[in-house]
Design brief:
Distance between the termini of chain A: 21 Å
Largest sheet of chain B: none
Order of helices and strands of chain B: HHH
Structural class of chain B: mainly alpha
Number of domains of chain B: 1
Oligomer: heterodimer
Strand content of chain A: under 5%
Strand order of the largest sheet of chain A: 1-2
Structural class of chain A: mainly alpha
Number of domains of chain A: 1
Radius of gyration of chain A: 22 Å
Number of strands of chain A: 2
Number of helices of chain B: 3
Strand content of chain B: under 5%
Shape of chain A: globular
């Protein structure tokens, strides 16, 4: 029995309950929220150290033996993802203190936020297909409410698109689970991995099922050609919500894709993983082209989320140890860098009162510090050495060259240049040029930034994330070793199966 | 029996997807509900239909007698129904709020998110 494995689910649940109990006391809610996020982060680090030293951790809920009960599993990849959830949770919880408006705080922003973290952690840790569906729904319902909370017209419209497409994806996921159960007679991932690859299941059926999962998870991960809901909705809620969505929700979709396509659907790797590689290429290109055309700060960044998802899938499509290590490293890098950029966009909004790049300007003159906080994550995202994005992309490109997939390498490099171009577009428009003459639009209803404490709560998470992307770049070695170990575990399903089911695989 | 249910499930999926592609918000909600029913019924059917033999273990045996219904699909459906109920209730409220603030049921006129 490994208690550390349950904590990442239990802590946000307890925090959410405590927050609901303090419903009418905003000041108390804010303290509980930050404290809960901090404890979650520490527990996640504890889990990561334990998994990296002792190997895959498994808990059978209710002591039901493996293929019958619900299993929680943490291999290195899961543990890394849970740690990233803890980090993002903490950063955004602090950031929310001075960026969330009072009405949203009074109507349950903090409890929902922690329920969302619980759903995300549950999805990372579960070892059971149906349980994964349930965690997806927990996460989705929290995200639905967070998306619509506040009830501005643009938010409601974004939420309609987001809710509808996600429910279609869930229905497809559920259908696929039903058929999977009828084919394999089990929903435990380790058991599935054994049975579907054993030979007494029709390989055509397995491939058909894998395609259903590819579409269901692909919608949630926002891959080409299923990503259109993301740029239509992600820029509508408050920026703290956008940051946590961009950091975690699409990544849960990618995580699920990686999990099922490294563990369960390995019957026809030539077909499925080549398809994933093609999708990855198109995702990168369409995402970045969309970004280049945008003039809204947050809409531009939303399109970039799509583009980065392509890089994550590229590693999965190449399917070598180096490539998967690149994906894991890229995952860590992109969660940090992308969220930092979103948080900067929120800070810019609170200073200048708009997200429109044409109306922004002169921020370098007035806020040098903030400009630097934008510049480092932006360059990191484009892959400029020595920042974290450089090593992530270098690893993926090298893996591509080693497997002689030159087309995807060319796409990845070309997209990097366009990424740099669009980041420089933000830099030139919002920070570098003079502020255009226009009537000052005051940021409405947001907390004042007069006090230094409020300002600190706003920039401390950005500085922390920005510093991390520099540290990840300069001292990449230990992180890369960790990512390679995670990739090695992903490519060795036998160890996963043995850890869950026990005995000889 | 399986054949009949297969046709019913196919019809439900088709109807659900057709409704999803209409321009009216109300029809989209109904489409979502139909899709949910279709997948629940699918899980029920592909879990093998066994009539009249419940998976109960007699007092003097270690396992139930041979042809018994698989209880797991039913447990899955129950969970899925509860989740579907909650999600659809939320979607209804969301669509109603949107209708109130936009003033139309036509999804094509929902374009505020296109501006930055």
């Amino acid at each position: 029995m490994n208690g550390l494995l349950i904590l990442p689910i239990l802590i946000p649940l307890m925090t959410a309950i405590a927050l609901v109990l303090a419903w009418n006391h905003r000041a108390i809610q804010r303290r509980i929220s930050v404290a809960g996020a901090l404890i979650l982060f520490l527990a996640a680090i504890g889990l990561l150290t334990s998994v990296s030293s002792d190997g895959i951790a498994v808990v059978q809920i209710g002591d039901w033996p493996a293929p019958f009960g619900i299993t929680l599993v943490a291999d290195l990849f899961s543990a890394i993802m849970v740690t990233m959830t803890g980090l993002m949770g903490l950063a955004v919880a602090v950031y929310s203190l001075s960026s969330m408006d009072a009405p949203r705080e009074s109507f349950g922003y903090y409890p929902l936020f922690h329920v969302l973290l619980m759903g995300v952690n549950g999805a990372f840790l579960t070892g059971d297909m149906f349980n994964l569906y349930v965690w997806f729904e927990v996460m989705l319902i929290a995200s639905f409410v967070l998306m619509a909370l506040g009830g501005e017209r643009v938010q409601l419209e974004g939420a309609i698109k987001y809710v509808t497409i996600n429910l279609v994806s869930s229905a497809l996921f559920l259908t696929a689970i039903g058929i999977l159960y009828s084919v394999a007679g089990t929903l435990n991932m380790a058991d599935l991995a054994q049975r579907l690859n054993s030979g007494d299941v029709d390989p055509g059926m397995v491939t058909a099922l894998s395609m259903m999962f590819l579409i269901a998870f692909g919608i949630k991960a926002a891959v080409f050609p299923l990503f259109f809901w993301l740029p239509a909705s992600y820029h509508t809620p408050p920026v703290a919500v956008t940051a946590i969505f961009s950091g975690l929700l699409t990544k849960v979709g990618v995580y699920s894709l990686i999990r099922v396509f490294t563990l369960i659907f390995l019957r026809d790797v030539d077909y499925t993983h080549t398809l994933i590689l093609v999708i990855a290429g198109f995702t990168m290109v369409t995402g970045v082209l969309g970004a280049v055309a945008q003039t809204g700060f947050r809409r531009l960044l939303s399109f970039h989320i799509v583009s980065q998802i392509g890089y994550l899938l590229m590693g999965l499509g190449l399917f070598t140890e180096l490539a998967l290590a690149g994906t894991v490293f890229f995952m860590v890098h992109v969660i940090i860098a992308k969220s930092a950029l979103f948080l900067v966009s929120g800070a810019v909004y609170q200073i200048a009162g708009t997200y429109d790049l044409k109306k922004l300007g002169g921020l370098y003159k007035s806020h040098v510090g903030l400009s630097m906080m934008f510049l480092f994550p932006a360059l990191s995202l484009a892959g400029i050495p020595p920042l974290s994005g450089f090593w992530a992309k270098l690893t993926l490109v090298r893996a591509g060259l080693e497997t002689e997939e030159y087309a995807i390498v060319a796409v990845a490099l070309g997209v990097s240049i366009l990424t740099l171009f669009s980041m420089m577009k933000i830099w030139a428009e919002a920070f570098w040029k003079d502020r255009p003459e226009s009537d000052e639009a005051a940021s409405d209803g947001l907390p004042e930034l007069r006090t230094s404490r409020a300002w600190l709560a706003l920039v401390a998470p950005i500085i922390a994330l920005g510093a991390l992307t520099i540290v990840l770049g300069i001292a990449a070695e230990p992180f890369f070793v960790l990512a390679r170990d995670a990739a090695r575990q992903l490519l060795d399903p036998a160890s996963y199966i043995q850890a869950v089911l026990g005995g000889t695989p | 029996m399986e054949v009949v249910l297969a046709f019913v499930i196919g019809g439900l999926y088709a109807a659900g997807l057709f409704m999803m592609m209409r321009r009216s918000m109300v029809k989209v909600i109904m489409g979502l509900a139909l899709l949910g029913y279709a997948s629940n019924l699918l899980i029920f059917t592909v879990g093998r239909l066994t009539r009249g033999s419940s998976p109960l273990i007699p007092a003097d045996a270690a396992q139930p007698a041979a042809p018994f219904a698989d209880p797991l699909p039913q447990a899955l459906i129950l969970t899925a129904i509860v989740i579907g109920f909650g999600v659809q209730a939320f979607a209804l409220v969301l669509f109603k709020r949107t209708y109130q603030s936009v003033g139309t049921d036509d999804l094509d006129s929902i374009r505020a998110t296109e501006k930055s």
